[in-house]
Amino acid sequence: MKAFKIRDRNRPLAQLPIGEFLQKVEALDPTTAKKVLQLQKKHPSRTFGQIALEKGYVKDELARKYLSSKGFF
Questions:
Q1: How far is the C-alpha of 35 from the C-alpha of 43, rounded, in Å?
Q2: Segment 11-20 long-range contacts (CB within 8 Å, at least 24 positions apart)
Q3: Coil, helix or strand for 31?
């Protein structure tokens, strides 16, 4: 299992919005996160996590498990 790479330990991961969490653990790059946010604006009933998973943007299996445990998928 891949260890998380944390760049900023000032804010607990559990308190981060999902898009920031995915970027912090390097499971999603900033450009792709912006794409997901744009899609979310078009489809406000969809969550960030749902869109990221459905589009295949989440690259890390551990992040997928985290999202699944939070009910995003």
A1: 12
A2: 17/48, 18/47, 18/48, 18/49, 18/52, 18/67, 18/70, 18/72, 19/48, 19/52
A3: helix
Domain with 36, as residue range(s), is 27-69
Nearest-CA neighbor of 53 among 42, 40, 44? 40
In a domain, residue 6? The reply is no
In a domain, residue 1? The reply is no
Number of folded domains that form the chain: 1
Radius of gyration of the chain from Cα atoms?
12
Each residue of 14-50: pLDDT tens digit? 677 888 888 887 888 999 999 999 999 999 999 888 8
Contact status, residue 64 vs residue 53, Cβ threshold 8 Å: yes
Q: Does residue 4 lie in a domain region? A: no
Residue 8 lies in a domain: no
Whole-model pTM?
0.68
